[in-house]
Design goal:
181 residues, mainly alpha, two-stranded antiparallel sheet, 66% helix, elongated, transmembrane helix, DoxX, transmembrane, DoxX family protein
């Protein structure tokens, strides 16, 4: 359904959601789907992050070693020129900083998704990390995790309904309105 409204600047066209999108991304009845995907993805990130946080090569005495080795390996592959520049000029010279950012970022994304706090933001940063790993040539579970993260970010309004977002987002000023039919 297309709805045309008049506003002070002229006409504004509002295209209504189709029933399937409305169910998935607006209706809290779909929240159980997002709960399953959210906890799965969160657990994956949390376990990966804990593995890194407890590793000497990531956050210990030899912090930065794993990042430097991984990125130098990525540079030996056929990767995008702009990404190679990014790795050579920013990541590798600051490998220790990026090591901590990645390790703790994975833990925080995992915790945020598991408890459903700032779900859309956590999913977005998870997607950024997945995309970075893909650009560096690591496939593994990254495509699946990236797709789930994109869907969770799109469903941010209801993805954290069974989680802390249900209470946190209204307190933070999210423009939620509960409408009953």
């Amino acid at each position: 359904m297309v709805k045309i409204e008049q506003n002070k600047n002229g006409r504004e066209v509002i295209i209504e959601e189709n029933p399937f999108s409305r169910f998935l991304f607006i209706n809290t009845k779909s929240a159980w789907i997002w709960l399953i995907l959210r906890v799965y993805l969160g657990y994956s990130w949390l376990m990966a992050g804990i593995g890194k946080v407890t590793s000497d090569a990531w956050t210990g005495e030899n912090a930065g070693t794993a990042v430097r080795g991984f990125m130098e390996g990525a540079l030996s592959q056929d990767i995008a020129g702009w990404y190679a520049w990014f790795l050579e000029t920013l990541v590798i010279p600051n490998a220790v900083t990026f090591s901590y950012l990645i390790a703790w970022g994975e833990v925080l994304v995992g915790l945020g998704l598991i408890v459903g706090l700032l779900t859309g933001i956590a999913a977005f940063f998870g997607a950024v990390m997945n995309m970075s790993f893909l650009l560096a040539g690591t496939v593994s579970a990254n495509p699946v995790m990236l797709m789930i993260a994109i869907l969770l970010a799109m469903a941010w309004k209801v993805a954290g309904w069974y989680g802390l977002d249900r209470w946190a987002l209204p307190i933070l000023g999210t423009p939620w309105k509960v409408t009953k039919k």
